[in-house]
Design goal:
The structure holds two protein chains of two kinds. Chain A is mainly α. Chain A has one domain (about 5-490). Chain A contains 21 helices and two strands. A two-stranded antiparallel ribbon of chain A has the order 1-2. In chain A, helix 3 (about 90-105) runs antiparallel to helix 11 and helix 9 packs antiparallel against helix 11. The longest helix of chain A has about 30 residues, at about 325-360. The model of chain A is unreliable at about 495-520 (pLDDT under 50). Chain B is built from 20 helices and two strands. In chain B, helix 1 runs antiparallel to helix 4 (about 110-125) and helix 10 packs antiparallel against helix 13. The longest helix of chain B is centred in the middle third of the chain and has 32 residues, at about 155-190. By secondary structure, chain B is mostly helical. The chains are: A mainly alpha, B mainly alpha. The interface of A and B includes residues 179, 190 and 507 of A.
């Protein structure tokens, strides 16, 4: 491994690119070209660094790697502390991979406020990567909130007709959850007596059983809103439908994973006992989400809404896997996060391509366009099948492992969830049939041009990844597994220090204690 | 009894001496000099404030626990020092904003700057004393200057209304404050806080009606000054009616000084006053945050919105006050840090209001900001930073400040108060972000006006003020370590 601080470099390259854009004008076409080129260069550089991280990643090692640490606010136990393991690595790669793709996609699509748009995307990339590598609560929270403003701008400035409503709703929903998490973080900071924001230290410190429920609830609420777990999903269709294509791709591809990643990295291992207590609830909500999302997706007449609701359904699988508390569920969960990012990201891009041609996303406006756009149809079919979970494509590996894991925990939920796969096949194939095949293309669709070079370049890497991960998932699974194994041990550990629960209700616990500090 | 000459630590008095003599100098220059050059007067004022600031800074290292002069009438400890610096920075930026405000150009400059300096000295005296009477005197020096400043645009009806309203309600509140002090004097036999504590140690007075009523009246009087609910009724009208530069000044410095006095009084008597006293402050904090934020949502005038937002911020600071009673330096440090950040971001926001105007007017309606992100990108970006910081989002100072206060509250065991506070900050996000929505997500409303506005230049005063405010807001958010530490060390009050 080299001496370069790769993790830091990877996180801050996009930020540097975004700041550089401040000095590039976007008044004329040449300036806009420069803005696009610079953004792409920095995004590709981040991708290259993440590839170097992937290459240098130590397999068969469960702990954190590529650790970098510097003092930040020592008095309060806050440090700049980053590192990654087999759980975060796939998500990091997903982020650095999707960002250049959406930049490429937006190359000719976004003509308004080009500079601000690229700055927002690059800042967003930094924040997303930061969340995945932060090993310090303070840093984590800064990046976590840092994602909000760029996404808010992306939805609110370049979105559809109801963009402002959707942007504000997205912001407020996420904010409610995250401020409660902040309180929980601070409580944890004082209650454990560690007075440090170091996540790894807290992961090793068992939390008092009486507090676990409260703290877990605060963390889990924040992440459940982000995932979103039913019934906190109502912001998602609005945000997805109103966001511009690139926003939808990033939102579905990466931002939703923040929720499941947070559950996995923080909420569950920090408070394992509470997580186990709540497991049944979460599995039930996950299964409800799977079925509900699929059923609602089935009746949509807007393709983008359909894909949005399918996300609710797919993320339900991830949650189901995590709350199975076993290796299959966990590694399947991580894999499924990546799979969903790739296939749903691709679906949103495809919907975007349809929209930019016809300025409509209604299924009824299309029909038989496979004849007009054969290449497009091929990509659309492959992506949809990947989303359904057809064997040989990526979706299958993840969903199958999750269901296997869930089955050993609770056959009932696994069986019900499996019916979600069938429902997914129904709504996707039905939609495909109506859009691509069903009858002759209407006159308005006859003149549609097939994919351009740029669109080929956008879709080919995604589809290649779908096949790659579907046929030979070992390279990525072998990196996930050691960390997932360690994670399973962590969340299954019994609380060794079974303390007697405090006699007072939790909030007053500290107050009674602090009576002795009353001033003389 | 032989009369003794009181101990006086002159070096620690220098900051106040500088400010007062600066004020006199500005007045005299304005009276006797033939050229009434605004620029020179502004420079003189700024130099005075800078000199006082450096005197404070140079007095701080090597300061023992604190220095008591005039038998407690004037005390200089680290807490005082921090508040001095804060108040001086706030006045400094306010002077810059006032110089940038065009509608003030036609008004006499000398009095304006002299009044700002006198108000500053009043604030410093309030923060640097443990004597109740001195707090009152400081408050009156401050308030009298502010009453005049609020109505400084003599021919502006709203300004006159604001001044009168402020004066009437302010005098009423001052009456409460003084009456409360008198009662405490009656009960405890002194107006010196440290003697009062000595007395309380010997004779618990938590059931003495005069003492408790006195404390209650003091809460009313100071609550009025910091605009805590339910003593906030004057705030929106006065903030809206006063010249924007005065509003900016009023929303920061006086609040800081009143809170400093509030802290001193409450921390001295906390522990003697009983649980009910804490409950009163707890409820006041929760009410102030909630009412301020909920009402701010509905405002269409940015000055009114910022008025309610400043009420909400007073609520957050009251959270620190509640927590500080448990004797945690963390809470007092958080309070100081919060005030510092608040000064930068709030003054910055008002400065944008002043600087983004055109043709002698100001952008006071929130709708006037439509599309400003594209017609005046720099000002809009600065405003966006201030709004994000006021909303308490990272990576700005507002976030670190909130974190600081909330962690103090949680450490002191007030988890539910912290929950109320964070949920409030979600409500606040709504109206702060609305400005960003208007600036970036709406098209400019009136093409002609916007074109005129786009060609308007930002004056160099406004630019300097904005630069200071932006740097302060971001620096305190990204590299907060040193100042947090400084605030924490300043959080130990001299008894």
């Amino acid at each position: 491994m080299s001496e370069l601080p790769l993790t830091t470099l990877m996180i801050f390259l996009p930020l540097a690119g975004g700041l550089l854009l401040l000095f590039v004008g976007d008044a004329d076409e040449a300036g806009r070209g420069r803005v696009r080129a610079i953004s792409m260069a920095f995004a590709l550089a981040a991708l290259a660094v993440s590839a170097a991280v992937y290459a240098g990643f130590r397999e068969n090692f469960a702990g954190m790697q590529f650790i970098e640490r510097a003092e930040w606010i020592p008095r309060f136990g806050i440090s700049y502390y980053v590192g990654l393991d087999g759980i975060s690595l796939p998500l990091i790669l997903l982020t650095t991979f999707l960002t250049p793709i959406v930049l490429l996609y937006s190359w000719n699509e976004v003509e308004k406020r080009v500079r601000l748009y690229h700055m927002a995307l690059l800042f967003l990339e930094t924040a997303m990567l930061g969340v995945f590598v932060s090993l310090d609560f303070f840093l984590f929270y800064v990046f976590w909130e840092g994602m909000l403003i760029p996404m808010y701008l992306i939805i609110g400035v370049w979105g559809g007709p109801r963009r402002i409503y959707a942007a504000v709703k997205f912001f407020l929903y996420t904010m409610v959850g995250s401020v409660l998490m902040l309180v929980a973080i601070l409580w944890l900071y004082f209650e454990t007596g560690a007075e440090t924001f170091d996540i790894l230290v807290h992961l090793d410190k068992p939390v008092h059983y009486a507090l676990q429920g409260w703290l877990f609830a605060a963390f889990a609420l924040s992440f459940a809103i982000k995932v979103p777990i039913f019934p906190f999903h109502t912001w998602l269709p609005d945000a997805h439908v109103e966001a511009p294509t690139a926003g939808s791709v990033i939102l579905a591809g990466v931002l939703l994973k923040m929720g499941t990643y947070g559950l996995m990295r923080l909420a569950m291992p920090l408070f394992p006992t509470a997580a186990r207590d709540f497991a049944l609830l979460f599995m039930a909500l996950a299964v409800i989400g799977i079925i509900y999302g699929a059923l609602v997706a089935m009746v949509q007449d807007d393709i983008k809404k359909l894909v949005a609701y399918s996300s609710v359904s797919h993320l339900g699988f991830v949650v189901l896997g995590l709350f199975s508390f076993n290796l299959l569920g966990a590694s399947g969960g991580v894999l499924q996060m990546v799979n969903h990012g790739v296939s749903t990201g691709a679906l949103f891009l495809i919907v975007g391509m349809m929209y930019s041609r016809r300025h409509t996303r209604l299924i009824a406006d299309f029909g038989g366009i496979a004849r007009v756009m054969p290449a497009f149809a091929v990509f659309f079919v492959i992506t949809s099948l990947s989303s359904i979970g057809l064997p040989g494509l990526n979706g299958f590996v993840g969903e199958f492992t999750i269901l296997a894991g869930a089955f050993s925990r609770s056959p009932f939920f696994a069986v019900v969830a499996a019916s979600g796969v069938v429902l997914a096949a129904i709504y996707m194939l039905w939609m495909l049939q109506r859009v691509l095949f069903g009858g002759d293309p209407s006159p308005a669709n006859l003149g549609l041009r097939d994919l351009g070079v740029r669109e080929w370049c956008v879709l080919v890497p995604l589809v290649a990844l779908m096949f790659g991960m579907g046929l030979y998932p070992k390279p990525i699974l072998s990196k996930i597994e050691p960390s997932a194994k360690a994670w399973v041990e962590q969340v299954n550990r019994r609380v060794l220090h079974v303390q007697t629960p405090p006699e007072a209700p939790a909030p007053r616990l500290a107050r009674t204690r602090s009576q002795k500090t009353v001033r003389p | 009894m032989t009369p003794t000459f009181p101990v006086i630590h002159w070096p620690y008095l220098l900051p106040v001496i500088f400010v007062v003599s600066g004020a006199v100098a500005v007045l005299l220059w304005d009276t006797f000099s033939r050229s009434r050059d605004r620029t020179f007067l502004a420079a003189l004022t700024l130099a005075t404030l800078a000199a006082a600031g450096s005197a404070t800074l140079s007095a701080l290292p090597g300061l023992p626990g604190g220095a008591v002069s005039f038998g407690g009438m004037y005390i200089f400890d680290r807490f005082t020092g921090f508040v001095f610096i804060l108040v001086l920075i706030a006045s400094f930026i306010s002077v810059l904003i006032a110089s940038a405000q065009m509608s003030l150009d036609e008004t006499p400059a000398g009095e304006y700057f002299a009044l700002i300096l006198f108000a500053t000295s009043g604030m410093m005296l309030m923060a640097g004393t443990r004597n109740l009477l001195m707090i009152f005197i400081g408050l009156e020096i401050l308030s009298l200057s502010l009453y005049v400043l609020a109505g400084y645009l003599r021919f502006d009806l709203r300004g006159n209304e604001a001044a009168l309203k402020y004066f009437l309600l302010g005098s009423f509140a001052a009456g409460f404050l003084l009456f409360g002090m008198a009662m405490i004097y009656g009960a405890a036999g002194s107006v010196d806080l440290s003697r009062i504590t000595t007395h309380l140690n010997a004779h618990p007075l938590s059931r003495n009606p005069a003492f408790m009523l006195g404390l209650g009246f003091i809460i009313v009087g100071l609550g009025f000054k910091v605009a805590a609910v339910p003593f906030n009724m004057w705030t929106p009208d006065v903030y809206e009616g006063a010249p924007t530069a005065v509003t900016a000044f009023m929303s920061v410095g006086p609040k800081a000084a009143a809170f400093a006095a509030f802290f001193r009084v409450v921390l001295m008597v906390a522990g003697y006053a009983g649980e009910n006293f804490t409950t009163v402050l707890w409820v006041m904090a929760a009410l102030t945050m909630t009412a301020g934020n909920l009402v701010a949502i509905w405002q269409t005038n940015i000055k009114r919105m910022l008025a309610f937002s400043s009420i909400a911020h007073a609520g957050y600071i009251l959270v620190a006050l509640v927590a500080a009673q448990k004797g945690a330096a963390l809470a007092t440090g958080g309070f100081l840090y919060y005030l510092l950040v608040y000064s930068f971001m709030n003054l910055g926001a008002f400065c944008v209001v002043v600087a983004s105007g055109w043709g002698g007017g100001e952008r006071t309606g929130i709708a006037d900001y439509a599309g400003m992100g594209y017609t005046r990108p720099v000002l809009a970006a600065a405003m966006a930073i201030f709004m994000v910081s006021l909303a308490g989002l990272p990576p700005t100072g507002g976030f670190v400040a909130k974190l600081y206060i909330f962690s103090a509250a949680i450490k002191a065991g007030y988890v539910w108060l912290a929950v109320v506070a964070v949920l409030n900050s979600v409500v606040a996000v709504y109206y702060y972000l609305r400005l960003i929505v208007v600036m970036y997500m709406q098209e400019p409303a009136d093409g002609e006006n916007q074109a005129a506005a786009g060609s308007a230049r930002v004056s160099s005063y406004a630019f300097a003020a904005l630069l200071l405010a932006v740097i302060g807001t971001l620096e305190l958010g990204i590299f907060p370590g040193a100042v947090m530490e400084f605030a924490l060390r300043s959080g130990v009050l001299l008894n």
